[in-house]
Design goal:
Layout lengths: L2 H11 L1 H8 L13 E2 L7 E2 L4 E2 L1 H14 L3 E7 L4 E6 H17 L7 E5 L4 H13 L2 E4 L6 H11 L3 E5 L1 E4 L2 E4 H11 L6 E5 L13 E3 H5 L10 E2 L3 E7 L7 E6 L1 H13 L8 E4 L6 H13 L3 E5 L11 H8 L4 E4 L1 H10 L16 E4 L6 H11 L3 E3 L11 E2 L16 E2 L5 E4 L12 E6 L14 H9 L5 E10 L5 E6 L3 E4 L2 E4 H9 L4 E11 L3 E10 L7 H15 L8 E4 L13 H8 L15 H11 L10
The protein binds coenzyme A and adenosine monophosphate.
Length: 635
């Protein structure tokens, strides 16, 4: 039996001893009573009775171990032309003072703090300051609009909001404060205070009754000590798209999370403490939570916080410049970022102009790493390129080529093998397991390992309904694919109405909800069409109300504007057109899959349940008007 097989088998045969051993890497204030409590199965808890503090484990314990001078965080911001470095000692002190400021504002253990901030060091400090005093942070990605922010505020009910005056996108400043004010006007659960970091690029107007300048809030605050929290207490809530317009509040606990993330750094990523690890993502996504903030710091690494893009800040060599300048050993990003780089540097001339001698491994996730992109990266960089698969809910990789255990031969297009701790199965729609090569629903056998979501925020019933009921005994990932004869997984598509745009997860249902709110729209459908850069982009088809007097082109423009205003620019919703009717089944279900296949130029059979097959030609011609449905558009 190979080392990987042996470890994997052991993790499933005796998860309690496997994870108890991994938990020795963490500093506990009180040892757990049990490793796994499944008395409320299918809901389970890891390390009940245990007490720890995540911020202590991420910062203080390294300082106590004499590593206070080691670099914890490097901030590199081509969009502002600035950079900063924080040692573990400095970061610990800044976090403790911010935690003291939160305390002074009345934030206590268990209170929620919403963080709506760009990629600045204060965002990382904000998350760790919450962890320090046992408050639960909820970070909302800056590309979301006021309405999305308001929904998250109403669900999390934060006592305090931490925000910045602006974010910086290439060529424009995104004013965060008006978005925050808009959200606060919309939401019911008004926070008591908003603390605003004034960035010099654009200062925000503060409401003296509610808002506080960040510097004033922090100045003179007494540094707060780490408070003990239960292993099972929530560390954070991170909202992610579900199939409806209502985002799901994924909860992460303290104990299992710290154990699993620490374990993953050494075993999945093959990284040692003291090394420089860079996840080029955003703190608003799970990759940012897990692999910009918590895992690298828990493991004693130096983490990079990059406020920039793969291209245009200033060019397609930006990633290689950062890797060389900061001696990055491991880089993790989304395939879309590499596709953007490849488009500008197809011959891969730029990496060679930088000293990448320390660079060892490139990890890709967020969407399937297409074989072309993997091949280009391998040629350009000469290092292993590892696709790995996971999701917001799991918090850490489910399938990967575990570089710290026993690297496997790469099969481009596959995230390789199941990571120890997870039991992945492929089921048909009736719940029977299918054989190698057969496509089915990808599920995880319960219990989920530590680090995965224990539930949804205040919504055990929603957690069960969304993930556990469809296949009893299993967690439904929402992904479809197969395992091959060698046990490699192939994750090929979603089984629901979620699309993946530039590594970001979007609900087509939410976009439809916004478009349907336009007074001239009778009905609409949104689906994901293949896109060379972003993997998928949303495409909308609108049916206008009878007698609509507005010009159809104007309705389309307004619809696109509504999505940007209500969901945010991150939806990348730029393509829509008006059609006479939508393809439906005889029972009235909209055939989004058929439209997607037409948009992607795939020849598929006419769906047998379709009400009127002639409609597909109308759709094809409308999509050709958008430049979709095959290269011979318009022919
Ligand atoms: N705040 C405000 N707006 C934001 C934002 C933020 N934090 N992040 C993105 N946006 C805006 C962008 O400015 C863009 O607006 P536009 O329509 O006015 O151009 C829109 O949201 C779409 O952004 P994005 O998807 O990033 O597309 P892009 O065309 O600007 O850039 C890539 C394309 C490939 C370079 C970019 O998507 C990228 O770097 N992707 C990496 C993905 C990633 O890290 N995913 C995380 C999972 S690992
Ligand atoms: P998110 O929760 O936003 O991280 O999105 C998770 C979803 O992105 C997964 O359920 C998959 O649909 C997709 N995804 C992420 N990584 C991969 C990958 N390596 N291969 C295929 N799909 C992926």
């Amino acid at each position: 039996m190979s080392k990987l097989d042996e470890l994997h088998a052991r993790s499933l045969a005796d998860p309690e001893s496997f994870w108890a051993e991994a938990a020795e890497e963490i500093h506990w204030l009180r040892r757990w009573d049990r490793v796994l409590d499944d008395s409320r199965a299918p809901l389970v808890r890891w390390f009940p009775g245990g007490e720890l503090n995540t911020a202590w484990n991420a910062l203080d314990r390294h300082v106590e171990a004499g590593l206070g001078e080691r670099l914890a965080l490097i901030y590199d911001s081509p969009v502002t032309g600035s950079a900063a470095r924080f040692s573990y000692g400095e970061l610990r002190d800044r976090v403790a003072q911010l935690a003291g400021a939160l305390r002074r504002l009345g934030v206590e253990k268990g209170d929620r703090v919403l963080v709506y901030m760009p990629m600045v060091p204060e965002s990382v400090m904000a998350m760790l300051a919450c962890a320090r005093i046992g408050a639960v942070h909820s970070v909302v990605f800056g590309g979301f609009a006021a309405e999305e922010l308001a929904k998250r505020i109403d669900d999390a009910r934060p006592r305090v909001v931490l925000a910045a005056s602006c974010g910086i996108e290439p060529g424009r400043i995104v004013e965060y404060k008006p978005l925050l004010d808009g959200a606060l006007a919309l939401c019911r659960a008004k926070p008591e205070r908003c603390v605003v970091l004034q960035r010099p690029e654009s200062r925000a107007e503060l409401d003296p009754a509610r808002d506080l300048d960040w510097n004033d809030a922090v100045s003179g605050a007494t540094p707060a000590d780490c408070v003990p929290v239960a292993a099972t207490d929530p560390l954070y809530i991170l909202y992610t798209s579900g199939t409806t317009g209502v985002p799901k509040g994924v909860v992460r606990d303290n104990g299992g999370h710290a154990v699993a993330l620490c374990w993953s750094m050494r075993n999945v990523y093959g990284v040692e403490p003291g090394e420089v690890y860079w996840a080029a993502s955003d703190i608003g996504w799970v990759v940012g939570h897990s692999y910009i903030v918590y895992a690298p710091l828990l493991h004693g690494c130096t983490s990079i916080l990059y406020e920039g893009k793969p291209v245009g800040t200033p060019d397609a060599a930006a990633f290689w410049r950062v890797c060389a300048e900061h001696s990055v050993e491991t880089l993790f990003t989304a395939p879309t970022a590499l596709r953007a780089i490849k488009r500008e540097d197809p011959e891969a001339a730029l990496p060679a102009r930088h000293d990448l001698s320390r660079f060892r491994t490139l990890f890709l996730a967020g969407e399937r790493a297409d074989p072309d992109t993997v091949a280009w990266c391998e040629g350009a960089l000469g290092v292993p390129v590892i696709d790995h698969w996971w999701q917001t809910e799991t918090g850490w990789p489910v399938a990967a080529n575990c570089m710290g255990i026993e690297p496997q031969p790469v099969k481009r297009g596959s995230p390789t093998r199941v990571v120890p701790g997870y039991d992945v199965r492929v089921l048909d729609d009736e719940g029977a397991e299918v054989g190698p090569g057969e496509t089915g629903n990808i599920v995880l056998r319960l219990p989920l390992p530590p680090g995965c979501l224990p539930t949804l925020w205040n919504d055990d019933a929603g957690f069960r309904a969304a993930y556990l009921e469809r296949f009893p005994g299993f967690y439904q990932t929402g992904d479809a694919g197969h395992a091959d004869e060698d046990g490699y997984l192939w994750i090929m598509s979603r089984t629901d109405d979620i699309i993946n745009v530039a590594g970001h997860r979007l609900s087509t249902g939410r976009l439809e909800e916004v478009l349907a709110g336009h007074p001239d729209v009778a009905e609409c459908a949104v689906f994901g069409a293949a896109d060379e850069l972003k993997g998928q982009v949303p495409v909308g088809l609108l049916v206008l109300k009878a007698g609509c007097a507005t010009d159809p082109g104007e309705v389309v423009r307004q619809g696109i504007g509504l999505v940007r205003e209500q969901v945010g620019p991150v939806a990348s919703f730029k393509q829509a057109c008006v059609v006479e009717r939508l393809p439906k089944t005889r029972s009235g279900k909209v055939l989004r899959g058929a439209m997607r296949r037409i948009a992607d130029g795939e020849d598929g059979p006419v769906p047998p349940t379709i009400d009127d097959p002639a409609i597909l030609d109308e759709i094809r011609s409308a999509l050709r008007g958008l430049g979709l449905a095959g290269q011979d558009a318009g022919s």
